[in-house]
Every structure is written in structure tokens, then in C-alpha cells.
Amino acid sequence: MHTAAVLYGAKDLRLEEVETPDLQPHEVLIAPRATGICGTDLHYYQNGKNGVFTIHEPLILGHEAAGEVVKIGSAVTNIKTGDRIAVEPQLSCSSCAHCRRGKYNLCAKMRFNGSASASPPAQGSLQKLWAHAAHLCYPLPDNVTFAEGSMVEPLSVALHSVRKANLTAGQSVFIIGAGAIGLLCARVARISGASSIVMADIDDARLNFAKQHGLADKTYRLPLGGQEGGARAEFATRVSSEIQSALSVNRADVAFECTGVESCLNTCIGMANHGSKIVVVGMGQPLQEINLGLALVREIEIVAVWRYTNTFQAAIELISTGMVDVRSLITHKFDMENIRDALEMALSRPADLVKCVLLSE
Amino acid sequence: MHTAAVLYGAKDLRLEEVETPDLQPHEVLIAPRATGICGTDLHYYQNGKNGVFTIHEPLILGHEAAGEVVKIGSAVTNIKTGDRIAVEPQLSCSSCAHCRRGKYNLCAKMRFNGSASASPPAQGSLQKLWAHAAHLCYPLPDNVTFAEGSMVEPLSVALHSVRKANLTAGQSVFIIGAGAIGLLCARVARISGASSIVMADIDDARLNFAKQHGLADKTYRLPLGGQEGGARAEFATRVSSEIQSALSVNRADVAFECTGVESCLNTCIGMANHGSKIVVVGMGQPLQEINLGLALVREIEIVAVWRYTNTFQAAIELISTGMVDVRSLITHKFDMENIRDALEMALSRPADLVKCVLLSE
Amino acid sequence: MHTAAVLYGAKDLRLEEVETPDLQPHEVLIAPRATGICGTDLHYYQNGKNGVFTIHEPLILGHEAAGEVVKIGSAVTNIKTGDRIAVEPQLSCSSCAHCRRGKYNLCAKMRFNGSASASPPAQGSLQKLWAHAAHLCYPLPDNVTFAEGSMVEPLSVALHSVRKANLTAGQSVFIIGAGAIGLLCARVARISGASSIVMADIDDARLNFAKQHGLADKTYRLPLGGQEGGARAEFATRVSSEIQSALSVNRADVAFECTGVESCLNTCIGMANHGSKIVVVGMGQPLQEINLGLALVREIEIVAVWRYTNTFQAAIELISTGMVDVRSLITHKFDMENIRDALEMALSRPADLVKCVLLSE
Amino acid sequence: MHTAAVLYGAKDLRLEEVETPDLQPHEVLIAPRATGICGTDLHYYQNGKNGVFTIHEPLILGHEAAGEVVKIGSAVTNIKTGDRIAVEPQLSCSSCAHCRRGKYNLCAKMRFNGSASASPPAQGSLQKLWAHAAHLCYPLPDNVTFAEGSMVEPLSVALHSVRKANLTAGQSVFIIGAGAIGLLCARVARISGASSIVMADIDDARLNFAKQHGLADKTYRLPLGGQEGGARAEFATRVSSEIQSALSVNRADVAFECTGVESCLNTCIGMANHGSKIVVVGMGQPLQEINLGLALVREIEIVAVWRYTNTFQAAIELISTGMVDVRSLITHKFDMENIRDALEMALSRPADLVKCVLLSE
């Protein structure tokens, strides 16, 4: 038995004792030390559901995790007790066509930790002990802290997104949405060669953060109209023109949509050069009215991304070498015991919040 | 002076004498022998405009053309008088960044023949004599007729579209829209390795044509609701489920949208496998309400195509070797003098019309 | 206990009783019905070794196999008893970085059946009962025979090779080596869009076979000098010039090297267009003196291929739909009991041999 | 008439008056301000030839150039008098199949400046006035000096090479050869995401330069044997093992061969991970004995590069933003009048020479 933060439904989070599972031969038992909170965690906590997935069985959240290995299964060879690790939270079947061709993020049998998408759910890291497949555990170098290790997962989203963009050195990038993922996309785009990065958001504090940390070269505060519907595509086209004239920039070689908002995707289309790619990272309303006509005459590719594959080792390298500074994005820390406080704080959306991490000794 | 079919506005087509231009050093003078009629020609003829482009100056239509070279400019070396040629109707600047990287279809200075997009317009092939850049003229082998040569242009659209799909042998394909472009996409997909091709359309005659000519393995007649709006995305999702169950097929590795209709693009999303590509060939309403949520969880790439690049030589090979039979798609032929009859016939949309070609001796 | 053809060393092949292994939960027990013989089998039989791999433990050959499932393990869901299947003979670890990114053919823990590369060896299909991982078994449609099913493996090599070539419709192909793999590459290249296929070989019978079966458009019988060294690269350059002039062909957009012979790779470089790819399928002497200078000024990519990945399902589709006719390549059949006769026949290299398949009821 | 440094043959360099050509409509007249010297210049100067190209007509060297526009042709719109520019020295035909698909570096009619490859040669920048195609002139931002501008050309080689590598963030890189091109490849690889860069060379001074300027993370001084032949491939395999053990590094995801030496290419094969790419930048002996066997089992792609395409604008961005510091690579400067001294100095190969630039006011 060990303590876990179990979510039974909207706002019904209980710290209680749960059964410690028997360790399978290819599993390790982990003591989670750091867990980041992301938007989907907040959806589950606030509403008892995230998109189409509703909590029907008790759910332990936590998929941005780093920890310490306390025990290894009989067949484990890549990890040893005492290892400090980052944890990839997506266990796929490894034998279907998607897994076999390297797109295991698309596996129909995916068990994603801390999510109600599977039944019974694959439980997450917000507990004292956590059994996980050994091959999804990646040792952390000494110079990477547990808190930084918990950032490997969101960094993976950005890395996967930038890989999809086929960015090359000297290209220009436009990013809409300056939350944690947008900021990480900016950083990964920079170290992947972007010589010009423009970020847009409705929030001045976020844009200031981006500029102060050298993540964006130029920023633009978006007007609010587009989010509320109204003129829609025309609004977005006008906004993209204003961005170009206000910032004296040309259209971008690659655009990243990191908000999930319809008008923001249309702004990306307006900001995207002929023959460019728009990587859609943000997830919002399923149905969006898109300026497809403009995308066609510009021969733009609209590339959807879903989570990530094969990113953890590379992401750890990027943190360890200092190429990506994730530490500055961790603006809030709480002890794991105070998880409810952390979630409520995050729900209140303070201006200075980028990433909140829960720590445990 | 020579005779041309000059369009002055909606339905105002006049066969009249026009000035024969002086031949520039890198140009050839062509006697057009065959010109195909496509949807954009019909838009200009019926409405005096095509999308955002309105006829302000007299316009000579014709961009699907083959002919005979009657004179060559002083600097021409790749073509000689008497050559039978297919004509690529897009003259780009050849020195801008798009042209230099091989995406000359995106050139801002593009002069597309038979279109009101430039001013003065780049005139088309519906005239007795036609001056054109020599490097855009491709000799036809003896076994390719002028009528077949006029099909090189629409075949180019299909070839460009299939190239964008990165199709490999043994993959499955879904095509919505069984007009000339959809049928050509089907054929190019087949010879590019597609082992299963499903076509859908609202028109039984077109689907029968596709099956009789071995272009589709299975066909599905679409219900009409989606075109009229209504349930929209839900409609498309239901249709795609019905296609799968009615035809006993799985979702496709690649989908081609060849209608320009919103519900058809959503049907493509419903019919597209995880990790697949949807190539958007059809152009319709600029704003379309897309099921982006489904595209995201399936990590689908939505690839817009705009005309074509570097297709003519390859397309001629495909016709000459018999790999693509374009002859059977030419369902209607008219003498060039009877162009008005041809356009009116095409506007009446007879059930058996795939492609109408105007011939001239 | 069941009967197996066990190879103890050079020419020391014994039909004897071996232990039938206990079936693991994810395994199936197969009664092999057809097994093709390939060059590596002959190397093991004749020399007791294949390249760097020597037989140290008794080895059961057979990696081109189809059979019938006679029993399934407790966890198997994708296959049922009685299924007719083709068998992918490469069991990888499925959790290393190579496996995870879809390049499982490069897995360091690969257990390839019928090969002495692992210890103990992963035994092959030349036995009455054969246990194998269920996820590597692919059901055969009713219209695909066991003999054809045994061709899925060599067809996989060709399919993998052509995928690496990024061939598009209307391109030209040069293939050197008209053995089973070269012929299959020709066929897969054709159905992937190649509009011109030139094949070269030192053997007239093979070239005739290629022409008679429509696999090559033009053929060229190679002179023998290059194989013996001598002028080497100069020889190859001269040969490639002679091919172009004798056959009136241009250099190719893609070349396939299917012999493993140094002068043939250099002939490919001579026959390859600027900006083209040469796919190296054949394996011969490790050290080869390559005309790198010519490859550089033509900016050619030399793409090595190693076995295949994710090919079996697609290859079965290609056979089932008739797009690839493998039946005509099976020029010799033997009963499994007469395996020694089959191997000796194959070693004698009769002019009409393309593929020999061993059958078992 | 204006002064030019005209090379008549080996060591026969004359500063003399030459005819100033009439300016064509699409040309500009340039006053070259900075010209870098590279290895091919030295070959022409020392031997009167470079590879297969011999000086038959007087040749003006200089293809790494920046200058000031003093006059523009009647049709020029992208450049104006007084502009400070970097000059792309490759004028292609712009209408052949290679040019049209964006691979204009492969144009058969290429006129490369300062090279004896065309007849009459396309003269280079080592003269007081130089006429050149306007579309190959790229304005320099104010913060880029002429000397830095002359580095855009060698940086282009590196940028083209790294683009070919499809590098993504967090990958490891091995570079053999720490001359100007190798060092630039290192820098472009770093800003394209390489998290680990190992450089090897026979020269300690070069390796120290690489480390001191942060271009390499680890360096290895190569033993001399391989350059002299001898054990050849075995030597290279042993060296690559020693590099891995001495530096505690794994094999690399991408390798760059920047020497043109056979044993160095084989060392790259030894140092390259399974499924990786080796980009061959260096040009040396045409025939090289390659460890193809090792490349095959590792499924390595050997990617030749020839000059560059579409790099100048991006390279200028990289210099202007400070992402690539080219200033520190310019270790030697001479006045253009002292060109002979500069060439003799460069021929003496001083230990501290990376790049020598000739300046002119």
C-alpha cells in the first residue's frame, strides 16, 4: 500500500492509500519526485473529464514525471535501482502496424498515463510508488534535476512538433500562443535554426516572458475579437496583415498553432508563406471554420501533431547540454501533499504562471 | 493577324481577328491543334469571372493545349519548326526564391495562360496562332495524338497531387469526386502503387465510368445532404462510416479531395487512416468548417495543392507508354470553330461528359 | 518431436527429429507449407557459413516461408488456428531506439530465422513444426497460394528497396542484376510508376526472362571484364556509356544495384542522372573501389538497404491484387523431403532458375 | 577598362587592365570589396588546373565575394546602386529540368565564376569591376561587413550540407576535417540542433580552434597512417573504435566527411550509427575504396553534395543574427593588390590559417 492522489470526479481529489501493484518482469517501481501539471490535468480536476474522456473509474493524474527507481523487475536490464529517470507516459502495444512503423503514438491500444482514455485507466505519477515499463524510463544525467526531468514530457511535444516542420537553418517562424508549449516550440525552433521568431498571444505577460527569455525576436499582442467569433476568417486575415506591418516582418516559413482557437489557425494561414507548413499543436473545438482557400493558393501543408514519438532521449540531451533551458519555465512549485492547492492556483491562471511542478522527496 | 476566340465577359465570346505578336527570341509560334475545356473555362464563360478573377480586358481562354510549332525565335534550341508539342501554360519569373527552389507554381509574377489573373492577361490557346516560351513546350512522341497531348495539363494536376501524397506500393487510396481530375488521380495513384482505390461521388454515371475503366476497385454513391450543409461534420462522419461498412474497406492510407465541397473534405478526414495524408485538390468555398479535432487525434496531414510543377515530361511518358490512358476520358470533341456549342454543351453537364476537347486543323 | 532439416556444417544436412518447443503466450505453432531458397541458404549449405556468420550450432534454414497455423498461444488474438499465413522472419526487441522509430531491421538484438547470426540461432522454417511470434504472421487471402506466400519475403526486399528510392510516376529506372531480387525490384518499380526500366546482367537467359515477362523495357548484356577487376572504374564508365548508346536511353532517375559486384555499382553511378539515387540492394565484397568523384559532381545519394521493415501486409496486397506476379518467378519446386536435391540443383545454377521453392503438405 | 588579377597558368598571375563588359539588362556592375580564397583557387594558382579543369583561356579567380553595386542594368528591380551585396557565383540556365525543379547546381550549362569549367570562363571577383546577374546578388544588412559577406559562399556549402543531413534537435554529429568547411558545418549543425559534435583532424591547431570557438564538444587528433593508404579500411575501422573509446562517445546520427580522403570516409562509416546519413562534402581522389559492407549492414545513406542551392538569403540571416560567427574564421586579410602574397601565404599552409580574405576599397 502507498499514498496516491486519486481523482474520483470534478474537484473530488482524495489523498488515500492504494494497492502497490506487483511488479511485472519488464517493469520498474518508481518513486516519483517531480510531476508537472498541464492543461489536461486541470480539465480532469475541474470537470471530471477531458474532451471526450470522462472519469468513470478512480484516476491518478500525472504524466509529466521524473523520479527515482526503487525496484526493478526480473527482466529489466536497461535501468537499475537508484537511477534517476524521466518517464515516457505512453505504453503502446509495440506490435501493431503503427507501432511497427515508429508511429506508436497512434497505437489503438495506447495506455497513456494519468488519462481516462483507457479502462481501467493507466494511472499517473501523483502517487508515492508507480510501476512502469522499463523501456519507457530514461536515465537523467547528474546535471538534470528531477524538476527539469519532469519537463522532458512537454519538451517532447515541442520537439515532435518542430520535427514535423522540417525546419532548416535561417528560416523564419511564427508561433501563436505563448503558453508553456508555445514557448518550448519557440526554443526548439531556435536551436533547430530559426533565425526569426515572431510570437503572438492575447496576454502581454506571456509575451514579455518570451522576449525577456530570448524565446521570441518580436511579439504581437492579439486583439480579442477573433476568439469570440464574429468576423472570423476576415478578422484573422486582417490580424495577420497587421502583424506583418506592425512588426515589419514577412510571412513565415513555418507557423505553429499552439492555442486550439479557430481564429488563431486562420491567423497562421495568413502569416504563412507560400509553400510553407503550419503545425497544429493546440487542441480546441473539434470543428473549425478554416480559410482553406488561402491555404490552397499558397499550397500550404496543415500538419496535425498528436503527442510525440522517440523524443525523450533527445529532449534529455537538449536539457543536459543547456540548449533548452526548462528551469526558467517552472514558475511555480508545490509539495506533492499540497496538490489541491497547486491545482486551484493553476485554475486561477495567475499572470506569471508558465509551468507548475509538484515535488516529492 | 489571326483568328481568336475572345471572351469579353459573361457569354460574350467573339471569334475575331487579333494581332499576331512579334516573336521574342526565346519564344515559339504555335498552331494550337487541341484544347481541353475545364471548369475554370466554364466559370469565365458563364459568369465573366473565375473566383476572384474578373475579365477586365478581352481574354482568350485555353490552357490545356497541344499544337504544332510553326516558327521559332532566334534563341530557341530545344524545339524546331514542325514539332508536335504539349504546352505548359504557366510562365514564371524563374529568378525569385520560389522559382529558384523549384516551386515555380507559387511565383508571384506567374502568368498563367487563359486566365484573368494577370493584367494584361496571358492569352490562351483558343486562337489560330499562339506565341509561347520555348522552354514550356514539350515534344510529343509520334504515338501521342494532339487530343491526348491536350490532356497532359489535367494529368499534370493529378501527377502533382499524387507526388504530394508520397504514395508507396501496396497502400490504399480514397478519392472523393469522380470528375476528370478525380479519375486522373485514381489512375496515377494506381500506377504509383495503390492496391486499393475507393471512389465516391454523388453521380452514378461517373462512378460507373470509374469502375468500367478499372480506375476504382470499389465505388460509393454519396447522399446529397452534405452538399447542402445541415448536419455538416456529423453528416460526413456518418457517411465515412457507411462507406467503410457498405464496401467492407478500412480507412485509407491516402485520401484525395477532388470536389471542393466542405462535407467531402470532412468525409476524407473520416476515411483517412491514422498518420495518413489528405491531398486537397478541389477548390470550392474559401471558408470550410473542418473536423480538425479528428484530424488531430489521427495526426493527419492536410496537404493543399496548387497547379503543378515539373510534371509535363513525366506526364507525356505516362501517356506514351500507355500507363495512363487519357483517350477514354475524352468523351466529347468539337471543332474549334464551334467553341460556343462546346461551352454550352459542357455547361449543360451531360451525364456522360468527362472531358471535352476542341480540335483545330 | 518433429522432423527438421538440420544443417551441421558445409554440406552436412540431416533430416532428423528435433524437440518441438513449448509455445509461448504470444507465439503460434506453424506447419510450414512452402519455403523459398535464396543465396544465403546456399552459402550456409555449401560453406557452412554466410559472410561473417559461421555455423557453430545446428542450424535449421528457411526464412522465405508460408504455412498453416496449427496452434496458438494463450495471448494470441490476431491469428487463429487454421489460418494460412506468410511469416516475417525477423524478431526484434521492439523496445530499443531503432525498433521504436520503426527501423526494427536495425535492432541489435535481432533474431533472424534460419541464420547463424544469433546464438542460439533463431531456427528457420525447414521443419514440420515451427514456433513463431504471432505478430509476425500475416494471413494470406484465399487467392494467394502457399508458394506465392513464400515469395512475400523476397518481395519485401524489393518493396523496401523501392520505397527507399522515392520513385514517382514517369521516372526512369536502371537495374543491374536480373536475379530474383532484381526482377522483383523491376516489377515493384513498374507498379510504383517507372515508365522506363532498363535491366543489365551478364546472363542472357535472365535478361530474356525479364523481357518476356514485361519486367524490363530494354535489356543489356554486360561484358565480363568488370567482374574480374582490371580497368575497374574506367571499365564501368565505358560500359555505362555503351548502355546509353546501344539502347538509346538517357541516364536514369533511380538505379538499383542488385549484384553486390563493385563494377556494377560503378556502372550504376555511370548510369545515374544528376540528383538521382542509387539503391544498393546487393551484398558482395565489403570493400569496393567506388567512383565517388562522379557521384559527387552528380550529387548522387547512395542508399544502402538492409532487409526490410513494414512490408509484409503491403506485399501480400500486391500479390493478391495481381499487381505483382510472383508465380512466374517460381521456376523450380521440390518436396521438402528432397531438400538436398533442391540445394544441389540450385548450386548448379541452371540457366532457367529464378526461384526454387520447397513444398510440404 | 579596369584592373583584374588574371591567371594565365600555374603561378602566372598578372595584374592587368581588362575590358569592362557592357552591362546586360538583368545585370549589375559590382565593385568587389572582399573575396575569400579557397582550396580550388589555390589549385588553379599552383597547378594551372583544378581537378579535370585546366586553364586554357585567361582566368580571373574569385567566387567567395561581396561588394558594392556601382551600376544596374535597365531591367533590374531587386537591387539598386549603392547596395552592399553578397554574390552567388553560379549562373544556371534557369529553364532546364534541373533548374526547374530547384536543383540548379546540377545545370549542365552552369557558369560558375572564377572557374575554368566553362569556355569562355565565367570570370570571378578578383577585379575592380565585375558584371553579374542581378538575381544572384543578395543585399547585406548594415551589421554584416564585406568580409563577412564574402563568407556567405563557404557558409552556403555548409548550409547545403546540413540541409541534406535532415538533422533534428538532440542528434549527435561527427565531422572529419576541421578546415573552414568542416568548422562551418559544425556551426550550422549546432544551430540546427546537434547536441553533441565530435570533430577529428590530423592537425592539433585546427582542433584547438574548433574547441576554443565552441564549434566542437570533443575532438580527436587522427593518426597519419590512413592518409597514406596501407591498411586502409581496417585502419579506418580501428580509428573509429578508438575515437569512441577515447572520447567516450557513441556512434553519431549524422557524419560529415570534409577532407576528401578515402580513410576519412571509411572512418565516417565506422563512426555512423545504424540508419544514419553520411554527407560527403570533401572532394579528393575520384576512386575510393569504401567499406560498403559496413554501410550496408548499418543501412547508411551516403549523400554526396555539390555546391549549394537557395542558401544565400538564409546564410545572410544566420550571419546577421549572430547565429553563425564567420568573423572569427577570417584569420588572414590582405589588400587585393597583394593577391600574390596572399596566395603564396595560403600555399604555405600556416597552422593558424582558416580563411584568408582579400579586401579592396
CATH domain class of the largest domain in chain A = Alpha Beta
Query: What does the average pLDDT of chain A come to?
Result: 96
Can you say what the CATH homologous superfamily of the largest domain in chain A is?
Medium-chain alcohol dehydrogenases, catalytic domain
Strand content of chain A: 25-35%
- 3D shape of chain A: globular
Q: How far from one another are the termini of chain A?
A: 18 Å
Q: In terms of per-residue confidence, which ranges of chain A show pLDDT below 50 for 5 or more consecutive residues?
A: none
Described by its quaternary structure, the protein is homotetramer
Number of strands of chain A: 21
Largest interface: A-B, 34 and 34 residues
**What profile does the largest beta sheet of chain A have?**
7 strands, mixed
Number of domains of chain A: 2
Count, helices of chain A: 11
CATH architecture grouping of the largest domain in chain A? Alpha-Beta Complex
Can you give the helix content of chain A as a percent range? 25-40%
